[in-house]
């Protein structure tokens, strides 16, 4: 009997070893030739000084998943692809309810896919900063309730967060070495909401350091922690947009079901547009900012970034809610997806910017909308003054960052304000601030008083509303822009924007249509955006990430 048991155990072990996949090792490579080639790029922001992170060891990031991934093969991955790749949340939930997929397999698929591309020096995108070590364990727990879940639920869906959003499981760095050990004791309010609704926090993504209010003229998507984020539609060819670069890139490359970004002025709209994903910058007050490293309490907001409009509405529903700790938070009722979306343009009236009609893709899109039944009104907004915008950001960050560091950050951090960060970076500027920290220095030098700041805020808000006055004067559902061309204006007016893939230039670079609406018109924007998405269906996966 003992011999039989021994033979059985030996056979089991041999089969286990046979099924175990070779370990994937992340290796640094010599990027000198690539960097030399980048100096010929026509865009100065694309003349990179480095690509790979000097701080991150991706082998350590993936260490918690070593055993699970050892028994997840390329064959397993290929079998799951038709069920997962590019699928919307309702489709994923249906597959799980039918038993052909589980939340654990879904999570394993994304972990495998991230490792597959990020370990390949010819395809790595440097989008990931951290992964939640417990995410597979949490996914297994979610599987216990899989049969009772609505197809429009965020439950069990792996979500990535921009790394300026607090999570207890992982540090919140804002891409800065000064915050490398920032393990917060609490989750951001929107992360609490995600967890309450059953979402899986898959990990943290790269960003333009300090949400791109740090260095001047530096590459979009660069941070000292994460290195240089790259665009999957053209690695080292096209910009990623920013500051939510990792969020846009990760969603485009199918590294997760969806991601959350943040925006002060264009930081959701820009990377969503340039990575062919759907990005919503909601009205200030729809979503809480508590537990998010700030630039400006006047303009900051998080927002969902997804592959399609339905998922965007589902994610927005999951993270909305009144937060008494956020002075701008509003008590809002309603479901952004209730009763679905009407898939037509009947009765929709949109403003078209005459100045943009020289863009052939935009002009052709407007023709398609007109043909589909939309009422088109060509508009030429009045000229406005944008004086004081940098002052607004300077003074807000001068006051808002110390509050975040005091109330939310790890108490062991040695930085308490912008000046401390500058001093910290100077001790090793080649590593910590290779592109300089000119904007941070500008914050320290700015002597604008809070009383003067109020005048600046009122001026900018008034000018933004003046530019977009046709929305209310002509009773428009939206004004149509391109990419983040008018994000700054919408930001100071405190109007929401929704950007949706519109097509691709001859070079292959994505271009998007951006809908600007009146405050708290997110539901209307999502509905008209859904109709546009269904009419055009232009989004396609990046060629080398299929």
TrEMBL record:
Gene3D superfamilies: Amidase signature (AS) domain. Residues 121-480 form the Amidase domain. Pfam families: Amidase. It comes from the Bacteria. SUPFAM superfamilies: Amidase signature (AS) enzymes. This is Amidase. It comes from Polaribacter glomeratus.
